[in-house]
Write a sequence for this structure.
């Protein structure tokens, strides 16, 4: 129980580090939540602050999910604590205590958790994500499609006894949060009003 509690706290604190907000202020000297999607994630940083800023943010946000997963696995030697810590990092990223509980949508941090828990699965998905993104230029569509696919793969591996069941539950939790956070995007995708990657950064924040 101690490992669970401490790793959940570690994950939430790490997840709450608002890399997008910090990088946004450093590059464009403003709160990036005031424009575009109103989020602190990589996509909004790309639209408002450019590619270099976005690259820094995606690395930081992935690391926030990877770190508690690795701490749980190799410091606490507890797969359940690892999964719980990675899940807490997603919660921290979406509702960060250090940024007024207004963060991003959790995709990069969720991917970081998968990277820390099941590296082989994680390494296979950037290719699929790139194919969807390059063919549609919708980051949101890529996010809502690839995340459940990753969850299915991990669930199948857990059923087969290749990965712990806790890892599968982590991916289910990640999918639930990410799909929930993308409800406005899904509605815009269905109505044809969702901005493609690289566009929409100059509009007032819409959520």
């Amino acid at each position: 129980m101690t490992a669970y509690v401490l790793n959940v706290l570690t994950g939430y604190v790490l997840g709450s580090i608002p890399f997008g907000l910090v990088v946004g202020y450093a590059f464009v000297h403003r709160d990036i939540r005031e424009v575009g999607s109103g989020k602190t994630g990589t996509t909004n940083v790309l639209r408002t602050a450019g590619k270099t800023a976005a690259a820094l943010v995606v690395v930081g946000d992935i690391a926030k999910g990877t770190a508690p997963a690795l701490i749980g696995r190799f410091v606490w030697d507890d797969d359940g604590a690892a999964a719980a810590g990675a899940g807490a990092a997603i919660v921290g990223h979406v509702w960060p205590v250090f940024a007024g509980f207004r963060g991003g949508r959790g995709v990069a941090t969720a991917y970081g958790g998968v990277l820390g828990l099941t590296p082989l699965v994680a390494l296979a998905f950037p290719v699929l994500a790139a194919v969807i993104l390059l063919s549609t230029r919708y980051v949101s569509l890529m996010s809502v499609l690839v995340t459940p696919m990753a969850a299915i793969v991990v669930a199948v591996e857990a059923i087969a006894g290749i990965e712990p069941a806790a890892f599968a539950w982590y991916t289910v939790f990640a999918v639930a949060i990410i799909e929930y956070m993308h409800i406005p995007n899904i509605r815009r995708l269905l109505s044809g009003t969702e901005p493609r990657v690289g566009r929409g950064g100059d509009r007032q924040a819409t959520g």
Summary: The chain is about 70% helix and 0% strand. The mean pLDDT is 92. The chain has one domain: 2-191.
